[in-house]
Design a protein that fits this description.
By secondary structure, this protein is an alpha/beta fold. It has a single domain, classed as Rossmann fold (3-Layer(aba) Sandwich), CATH 3.40.50.150. About 35% of the residues lie in helices and about 20% in strands. It contains 9 helices and 7 strands. It has helices at about 25-40, 40-50, 70-75, 95-105, 115-120, 145-155, 170-175, 185-195, 205-210, and strands spanning about 60, 85-90, 110-115, 130-135, 160-165, 215-225, 225-235. Strands 3-2-1-4-5-7-6 form a 7-stranded mixed β-sheet. Helix 2 packs across helix 3. The longest helix is centred in the first third of the chain and has 17 residues, at about 25-40. The N and C termini lie far apart (about 45 Å). The structure holds S-adenosylmethionine. S-adenosylmethionine binds near residues 65, 116 and 137.
Length: about 240
């Protein structure tokens, strides 16, 4: 009988190798903004965060890209979450001064960290730094060998982690083959398929969460048609007391 499950397969995406100002990369990042709209990412993230995280003061986004997703979230959240200190981490420097100004206009302080996440996480975690770490379309870049140390290092630095990733299933895979219909370029068309193949299903991220962190509440679920979400909240933290 044919095996209907999709095995996880992590391959390097083309966009990760293009220079920041390569026209194909600029176009692909615009595609990504459209894809986030089609995936309903902003509503999925808002729904999860509003229910799970009370007014965080320090937030870090890992693999933040051009920061426009966070700007859209901040516009919705700033009234309830005033005076956030936001760190946008990405190994490429993609956030425009306009995006930074718009975030500041909402009353949030913004720090841009241009660094590889693995280098950042290799630095000693001397204290709990963040109330919330969040990531969109980022965790799937890492294979099952690299994810446990990555998750453990995040757990050592944050009281909550929310990740919204591609769901590894047949419908998202079909959708990934159709992104050309919304005008996506060749880079995006290829990366979309690779992203779904590297995406997550079931409780895969929970299984990779560090076992010594028993004091965490984990939630993992399918969201919308194409997304897979993972939420970890530390019990007893300000974040979990809701
Ligand atoms: C698919 S994009 C998602 C961007 C953004 N989160 C969004 O939804 O628009 C993945 C981002 O992760 C960044 N990235 C990939 N691997 C990384 C690493 N090892 N360290 C830091 N950033 C990384 C890439 O530069 C890219 O901006």
């Amino acid at each position: 009988m044919m095996n209907m499950s999709l095995a996880r397969n992590v391959q390097t995406e083309t966009l990760d190798h293009l220079a920041e100002n390569d026209p194909r990369a600029i176009r692909s990042r615009a595609d990504l903004r459209r894809i986030n709209r089609v995936m309903g990412t902003r509503s999925i993230v808002l729904r999860a965060l509003r229910h799970a995280v009370p007014a965080p003061r320090r937030i870090i986004e890992l693999g933040a890209g051009d920061g426009t997703l966070m700007l859209g979230l901040a516009a919705q959240l700033a009234a309830q979450w005033p005076a956030v200190q936001l760190t946008l981490l990405d190994r490429q420097n993609l956030v425009t001064p306009q995006t930074i100004d718009a975030l500041r206009g909402l009353g949030w302080q913004v720090e841009i960290l241009t660094v590889d996440v693995l280098a950042w996480l290799a630095q000693p975690a001397t204290r709990q730094c963040y109330d919330l770490a969040m990531a969109n379309l980022f965790m799937h870049h890492f294979d099952d060998a690299h994810l446990p140390p990555l998750l453990a290092a995040i757990a050592a630095r944050a009281d909550a982690l929310f990740a919204c990733e591609p769901r590894r299933a047949w419908l998202p895979l079909l959708g990934s083959h159709l992104v050309g219909l919304i005008g996506a370029n060749a880079v995006t068309r290829e990366d979309a398929v690779l992203s779904v193949r590297a995406g997550f299903a079931g409780t895969e991220l929970s299984m990779l969460w560090p076992p010594e962190h028993r004091s965490w509440r984990l939630k993992e679920y399918a969201a919308g048609l194409f997304s897979h979400c993972f939420l970890a909240t530390r019990q007893g933290s300000r974040t979990a007391e809701r």
